[in-house]
Each structure stands twice: as structure tokens, then as C-alpha cells.
TrEMBL record:
Keywords on record: Oxidoreductase
Domain Acyl-CoA dehydrogenase/oxidase N-terminal: 13-93
InterPro entries for the chain: AcylCoA_DH/ox_N, AcylCoA_DH/ox_N_sf, AcylCoA_DH/oxidase_NM_dom_sf
MF (Gene Ontology): oxidoreductase activity
SUPFAM superfamilies: Acyl-CoA dehydrogenase NM domain-like
Pfam families: Acyl-CoA_dh_N (PF02771)
Record region (Disordered): 157-178
Protein name stated in the entry: Acyl-CoA dehydrogenase family protein
Species, as recorded: Methylobacterium adhaesivum
Length: 178
């Protein structure tokens, strides 16, 4: 396996997570300690482009996710979703300017931010079952206004959707969320 940077040890992370996983499963709480340990390893950015600190394909990152998931399946799932979303937003032909995924990538690299697609709506459920979500984004001056309601996102308690960006990042700013 080739990494853009020297690889951290996912097996050691899995071992650290194992001790806490059963208690989190019993309580139904997100394993924040395990998510923090995941962030500390630097494994969050594996599927971003090399220029942003990543460089692995999803196929190669899968081995890392499987190892982490053996220690705590919930942490492995949050990790897998983050890696998948990075792969999707950074791939050629993505539907937004490169500055948008780059800003998300810088956040992941600098603060080990996790990401997910918030898709589940009260009236609609998940888009995987067909149809169009009611949530929409509209231009608002020099930013965007996002209107709608989401009811669930895996790992939401560990996400930082409106965190600070690089000061000179050309990303369109979010002016409000309704």
C-alpha cells in the first residue's frame, strides 16, 4: 500500500477503540473518544488528492477502514463515510468548482474534520429510495441560503459543518441555514 505520507498504524487505533466500543453500543452514544483517536491518527484524509495530503483510492482505503472497524464498527462506519464523501467531492467531473472540495479538504487536513451528506428528511426519508429532497440552496448576495430540514445523518455528533475555512479560501460563504 502506498501512502502520500508515512502511514499511521490503524491496528493500534483499532485496539484503542475496542475497549470503549461495547459501552458505546450499550448506551447508544457516539464514541467521541474513538472519533478523537481517529482524528489524531491523520487517517481522515486518505482519499483526498495527494496535493491535499491524501492519495489513496477507495479500494486501498478499504483495508484501513476494515481494520479500524474491527476495533469499533461505529467508528469504522463514520470513517468510511468520510472517506467516501472525500472521494466523491474530489473526483474529476464533480458538479462544483474545485475551490469547494479544496476548502473541505483543507478543513479535513488542518482540523481533521469529518464530513457526510445530510440527506434524510422528515417527509421524504432517504433519497436512496427515489424522489427529490425538499431542501434547497439559493443565492443570497455573495453567499448561499440553505432551506430545509434534515432528521438524521450518521456520525452527525462528530461533524463540524460550518467550521472556519482558510481566510483566503475562494469558497462561496454560507450566509444562513433555515
Amino acid at each position: 500500500m502506498t501512502f502520500a505520507v508515512p502511514p499511521p498504524n490503524p491496528a493500534a487505533l483499532a485496539e484503542r477503540c475496542t475497549a470503549r466500543a461495547a459501552e458505546h453500543d450499550r448506551s447508544g452514544r457516539l464514541a467521541h473518544e474513538n472519533i478523537a483517536a481517529l482524528r489524531e491518527t491523520g487517517l481522515v484524509a486518505l482519499t483526498m488528492p495527494r496535493r491535499l495530503g491524501g492519495g489513496l483510492t477507495l479500494a486501498r482505503a478499504t483495508a484501513v477502514v476494515v481494520t479500524v472497524g474491527r476495533g469499533d464498527p461505529a467508528t469504522g462506519l463514520v470513517h468510511a463515510i468520510t472517506l467516501l464523501q472525500h472521494e466523491l467531492i474530489h473526483r474529476d467531473g464533480a458538479p462544483w468548482p474545485r475551490t469547494v472540495p479544496d476548502a473541505v479538504g483543507w478543513d479535513a487536513e488542518a482540523r481533521f474534520a469529518l464530513i457526510n451528506a445530510l440527506r434524510v428528511e422528515p417527509e421524504f426519508g432517504t433519497p436512496a429510495r427515489g424522489g427529490l429532497p425538499a431542501t434547497c440552496a439559493r443565492r443570497d448576495g455573495d453567499g448561499w441560503r440553505v432551506m430545509g430540514r434534515k432528521i438524521f445523518s450518521t456520525g452527525a455528533g462528530a461533524l463540524n459543518p460550518c467550521g472556519p475555512r482558510r481566510p483566503r479560501s475562494p469558497i462561496h460563504r454560507l450566509t444562513s441555514v433555515s
